Amino acid sequence: MERIERTRGGLHRLAPSGLVLLVLMLANGCATIAEPVVQQPFESYQSAVAELKQQTDQALKQVADAELAQFRQQAADDPATVLQLMLEFPPDQPFGWCYTGREQPVSGDIPAVPSSEDLSGNRAALDSAVAAAGACQSKNLPLFAKLEQMQSTMVAINGQLLQYAGLLVALAGADEASRFDPAEQAERFDQAASGLLGRLAGLGVNAGAPVGNGLALFSTLAANAAGRYLESKRREHLVEVLVAGKAPLTRLVELSRQALEIAATSVTDQYQEQARTRFRAAIGGSATLDDVMAFNQQLQDRLNLLKTISGGYGALLNAHGQLISSLNQDRPAGLGELLAYARDIKDQYEAIKAAQPGSEPGESP
């Protein structure tokens, strides 16, 4: 009993000094000591996003280029195919234009048809037309133009995804607010988001509300959290930045996958338009069974590639969630799924390229 009394007395004597120390810590804002944030998880995430961007950009370019090559070949075999490039001009849009998509002239004389040599050497003119096609939402776009328009849009989206990943690396490593301006970054991402909405609408994507900041990966909300992080260097505020980016990232991934589905529909629509002619040619003896099987395989390969790319964007969203969990639980972020999709995309588009006529064995894109 005496021992207990001494212990209580000791506690009683120490209590005032302990309370004073605690009060001083609270007064100085030091009750929670800032834990250092390691940049490595953010750098790993940035590298994984960069890999997905590289492989996706190259894969979609390969598909668009292959379709343009086929269009040129079709024009060489049937010069009337070039009529699909005729333009029309909406009377209420002085700067607008769209492809008519006509396979035969409606009236009047047939315009002069350029030779296959002219067509194959006029990539600059075709590229210029495709670049301007963002204002054209007509379903009559030739497939090569639709695919090039989609590829250009996805390159812009991938660029934003990579910039966001780089921003997180910079923010995690910033040692003072003067080296990272959250408000300026938020304004840049907001402007970019507005541009992405326009591009997606041009593809026929239902982007919903016209306000651009709904797709801004680094919003005003994230900027406010970033400001708190820069002042305190507390991990919880960096988590807030990531959480603020989750909703716009989810929406951007949804719209990207919708764009890929629209591209898949365009590919299957053209297959159905051409299938009857291909199969009749095989029945009539002017085409072989191998020709028909190659025609089918091309469609299957394109659809599988677009499906894998779509899955890659889903994996990117999961990786972002893993990054949040890694900060909360102080563990490495799981990025294996995202990297695996990037590898699959590369393998698939390289296989498609290798199967094309004139491709050299082992040739890389």
Briefly say what this structure is.
α2 (40-77) runs antiparallel to α9 (289-329) and α7 (220-232) packs across α8.
Element pattern in H and E: HHEEHHHHHHHH
Please give the order of strands in the largest beta sheet.
Answer: 1-2
- Please tally the helical runs, counting DSSP H or I stretches of 4 or more residues: 10
Strand share of the residues?
Answer: under 5%
Helix-residue proportion: 55-70%
- How many runs of DSSP E, i.e. beta strands? 2
Shape: elongated
What does this structure look like?
By secondary structure, this protein is mainly α. It has a domain at 34-58 and 147-355. It has helices at 2-27, 40-77, 116-120, 123-132, 143-173, 182-202, 220-232, 235-284, 289-329, 336-355, and strands at 87-88, 98-99. It has a two-stranded antiparallel sheet. Helix 2 runs antiparallel to helix 9 and helix 7 (220-232) packs across helix 8.
List key phrases describing it.
365 residues, mainly alpha, two-stranded antiparallel sheet, 10 helices, 2 strands, elongated, disordered N terminus, disordered C terminus
